[in-house]
Specification:
Strand order of the largest sheet of chain A: 2-1-3-11-4
Shape of chain B: flat
Radius of gyration of chain A: 25 Å
Shape of chain A: globular
CATH topology of the largest domain in chain B: MetI-like fold
Distance between the termini of chain A: 81 Å
CATH superfamily of the largest domain in chain B: MetI-like
Order of helices and strands of chain B: HEHEHHHHHHHHHHHHH
CATH class of the largest domain in chain A: Alpha Beta
Number of helices of chain A: 28
Distance between the termini of chain B: 27 Å
Number of strands of chain B: 2
Oligomer: heterodimer
């Protein structure tokens, strides 16, 4: 009897377990929709990366030229598309919904931009968006499943393992050379006029794979830098620091005189290698782990001597309490909180979505609150900065047509709209008379954007009408940024942060072959886990920098030299494109 | 001959109890579709799988993915972290709901009992993301836990940046989250213990403590054993959600477990076959552990799953 009841109980508990597993799954997926702070933050900031920048004058001419020479393009090859297109249809379009849009909309099709985009082209679009922070997972599941929408917009060079060549070989997306030639006069013309960019947006074998997001000017590429409290500097009688030593003195003064508990405060997840202090030692990198050193030699940034010096300084600052104690776990919201409440005095980030935002928030309580951008610091006073943050003009976001798309021509003509004059204005400025007006040859945003009646921040108001504050299949215009940066000191950012030689040291978007990239991925995955872990250990002092040699040895054991070999080969092929 | 007899027996049984078979049908279909069919996909562990070629078109690579994992510099660390976290959660986490149930059982006031039960199982219903967000906030150098430490004169330190605290944080927070929920099954088992036994024991002069030891615990022992066996079976299958929500690269040393590694490799890096191989390795060990525990339990307590 007892035995039997045990059995029953066993069955029952098994049932409960199964049920709870199911429940677990259910709640799991709803959790995903909410996602962790960190994930959301990183997603949001990725978009934000595409957001700020700039100097020099407008990229507007490109738009004008586009229009004037449309006819030539038509002569040479493709028949110009007349919008709205005579053939209408429905397409599915998968992309990450930017944080500034998702704050108020659940679907890009509901925004004014989405509506006008469809109206102007005459194509009906069903937008599909992955949950915030789940972009990669959901994309990968979609690929594994084989059930693809017509258009997918995301990164292909770095985010698709094996790169665009592999994505085409896998049948996920199609090669666009013929398509662009036949149906896309606007993009074709732009690429013909900009050979440098043309080289970036195709693979070694010359294959086009996506309708790229392009930063039209170098001024749009200096998006990240350091900024600090000018009002504190004035109180202390100090100048904006230009060297690492001056930074040390300023941060110490912030701590001792101003009572800042975390004088320098930024989120490690976003800026672990792209902060100006790393660049001061020639050990910074905007995205890749590989950079080109003083001699133009390709190096693994985590293994160079400059990186060791950088870690030494960071460790010292951490020990002295100049860097936030929770450095590794901070997210953007926590940084905002500390920067706007006098707990922190200096930070690293984007001009608009961070610095300008901090100022507008903090000035409500403290009218004297003022942030200024600091130039890229150097090691010795009087030196000219050599390394600095700069993004590629093609920041690896593009809309690709998938292997499942049945009406390739329609999709191509629809996407080509972004490179036409009308499309250029729509994506950069929105709807004329509603979100912007022409003043001479400059577009100026209206009150709808700058002083939104719903009380939305500018970034969110822009998100309703344009896409220039993140990305998309079009050419970003400097005019957008100059209007977006409203505060005097924020306008200084691109000019202050820009480093003339920075571009010499970054890796272009190279594309290793399918075979190579598989091997490369295996090596860099292992390396990545290790260097991430050791970086923080060195900074926190849980691992002594005396062990640097064994650190380098471990990297070698993980086959670092092979990874460098592959990268070098791919770089050579890129240079000979 | 024998087969025919069994066939007849099933047929007869079906005619008599067809309604019961009908009842169980959805469950069987569920298992077939959602549990057994996906197992077919596990064969990609022995392949160099690419979605474009599909399972039938991908190349076989034998045990290459397994040997890659075993020779990975992270293999031992992942195994150790997974095992230690599981062992901690069993050693400390398994008895916790039993103790809570026993304590609640002794509470006289019905109202108090109900309230404390509700409070203790409340965290179970809060989403994991929220729970982990709270834990992260508590563990900041300016967080709640450090406030308490500082008020006793200790020094503030960011807890989630130091590898030596991760296992404690993980285990304690799991207990906090699941103790109330876990105690429900024991409470129901406790209500099934015959009241006459307590009477008899108290007549024999047993005090409350002795009654607990000699009447209550043996009474719920079958439940405990079954729960333990089930728990052992999932020893290695630590969910990745909590880990990836809590960890950062500074504490990989103690925090990175097999499932979080599979997540990073498989879903982020698209290395499908490799991550499937690791997952399969995990399942095989789980299965072995389940069988071993069952045998031990059968030998020592006469209670077992099968």
């Amino acid at each position: 009897m007892r035995k039997k009841s045990t059995k029953l109980l066993a069955l029952l508990t098994a049932g409960i377990t199964a049920a709870s597993l199911l429940a677990g799954c259910g709640s799991g997926s709803s959790d995903n929709a909410g996602t962790s702070d960190a994930a959301q933050e990183s997603a949001a900031s990725e978009d934000a990366a595409t957001e700020d920048a700039a100097t020099e004058d407008a990229a507007e001419d490109t738009a004008a030229e586009d229009a004037s020479s449309n006819e030539d393009a038509a002569d040479t090859s493709a028949d110009a598309s007349v919008y709205p297109l005579s053939e209408s249809g429905t397409l599915t379009y998968w992309l990450q919904l930017n944080g500034n849009v998702s704050a108020n909309f659940t679907n890009l099709g509901d925004t004014e931009l989405g509506k006008k985009w469809q109206e102007d082209t005459g194509v009906t679009i069903e937008f599909q968006h992955p949950a915030a922070g789940q972009e990669n997972e959901q994309f990968n599941l979609m690929v594994a499943d084989g059930n693809l929408p017509d258009i997918i917009e995301r990164g292909w060079v770095n985010s698709y393992p094996g790169g665009p060549e592999k994505a085409i070989a896998d049948g996920v997306i199609i090669a666009l050379n013929d398509v662009i030639d036949q149906y896309c006069p606007n993009l074709k013309k732009y690429l013909e006029e900009h050979p440098e960019i043309d080289r970036m947006v195709k693979t070694d074998s010359g294959t086009y794979f996506a309708f790229p997001f392009i930063r039209g000017e170098d001024g749009l590429c200096y998006t990240v830098g350091a900024f600090l409290r000018q009002d504190w500097l004035d109180d202390l009688g100090m100048e904006v620091p230009t060297t690492i030593d001056e930074w040390h003195d300023v941060l110490t003064a912030f701590k001792e005189e101003k009572g800042a508990t975390s004088p320098l405060c930024f989120d490690y997840a976003n800026f672990k290698m792209s902060n100006p202090f790393a660049f001061a030692y020639g050990a910074g990198s905007a995205s890749s782990s590989f950079i080109l050193d003083d001699n133009g030699e390709l190096v693994y940034v985590y293994a160079i001597d400059g990186y060791k010096d950088y870690l030494t300084t960071m460790h010292q600052w951490y020990e002295e309490g100049l860097i936030d104690a929770d450095y590794a776990t901070l997210n953007g919201d926590q940084v905002t909180a500390k920067m706007t409440t006098d707990e922190a005095g200096a930070s690293v980030g984007w001009a608009a979505s961070r610095m300008q935002l901090f100022m507008t928030t903090a000035q409500q309580n403290n009218p004297d609150y003022l942030l200024v951008p600091a130039p890229q610091p150097v090691l010795n006073a009087g030196d000219t900065p050599e390394y600095g943050f700069v993004e590629n003009n093609f920041p690896d976001v593009g809309a690709a047509i998938t292997g499942s798309c049945e009406n390739v021509e329609l999709a191509a003509r629809f996407l080509d709209y972004g490179y036409s004059e009308a499309g250029h204005n729509l994506f950069n400025f929105g709807t004329e008379g509603v979100s912007y007006n022409w003043e001479g040859d400059r577009a100026v945003y209206t009150e709808t954007i700058t002083n939104n009646e719903d009380g939305w921040p500018i970034a969110q108001a822009l998100g309703k009408y344009i896409r220039a504050n993140y990305n998309g299949p079009f050419v970003q215009d400097l005019n957008y940024l100059e209007e977006y940066l409203q505060l005097e000191t924020a306008k200084l950012c691109p000019g202050t942060w820009g480093v003339a030689n920075a571009r010499k040291h970054i890796m272009p978007p190279i594309t290793p072959s399918e075979e190579e990239s598989k091997e490369l991925a295996t090596i860099t995955n292992e390396l990545g886990t290790y260097v991430d872990e050791m970086a923080l250990k060195f900074i926190f002092g849980t691992e002594s920098l005396d062990n640097w040699d064994s650190y380098i040895q471990t990297l070698e054991n993980m086959n670092l030299s092979r990874a460098i070999e592959i990268e070098k080969a791919a770089l050579e092929r890129y240079n000979s494109r | 001959m024998k087969g025919k007899m069994t066939g007849d027996r099933i047929k007869k049984d079906f005619q008599r109890n067809w309604s019961l078979y009908l009842l169980v049908l959805p469950v069987i279909v569920f298992y077939a579709i959602f549990m057994y069919k996906p197992m077919y996909g596990a064969i990609i562990a022995f392949m160099d799988y690419t979605p474009a070629k599909g399972i039938s078109g991908s190349d076989w690579v034998g045990f290459a993915n397994f040997s890659r994992f075993f020779s990975s510099p992270y293999f031992w660390r992942l195994l150790r972290n997974t095992l230690l976290l599981s062992v901690y959660s069993i050693v400390f986490g398994f008895p916790a709901p039993i103790i809570l149930a026993l304590l609640l059982n002794e509470v006289g006031s019905k109202k108090f009992k109900k309230i404390s039960q509700t409070i203790t199982y409340l965290p179970h219903f809060v989403s994991m993301v929220v729970i982990c967000g709270m834990i992260k906030d508590f563990c900041l150098s300016t967080g709640l836990i450090n406030d308490i430490i500082a008020s006793f004169g200790g020094t503030r330190a960011p807890l989630l940046q130091d590898p030596k605290y991760f296992r404690t944080i993980y285990t304690v927070s799991s207990i906090w989250q699941e103790v109330g929920w876990g105690s429900i099954i024991y409470l129901s088992a406790l209500s099934g213990v015959d009241a006459q036994l307590y009477e008899a024991a108290s007549i024999d002069g047993a005090n409350r403590w002795k009654q607990t030891l000699h009447v209550t615990l043996p009474g719920i022992m079958p439940t405990i054993i079954v729960m333990l066996i089930l728990r052992m079976g999932s020893l290695m299958s630590m969910g990745y959600e909590k880990t990836i929500l809590l960890y950062n690269s500074a504490i990989y040393e103690t925090a990175d477990i097999i499932s979080s590694y599979v997540y990073r490799v498989g879903l982020i890096e698209q290395d499908w076959s490799y991550s499937t191989a690791i997952g399969l390795f995990n399942s095989v060990i789980n299965c072995a552990l389940l069988v071993v525990t069952n045998i031990i339990s059968k030998k020592t307590t006469e209670n077992s799953l099968w």
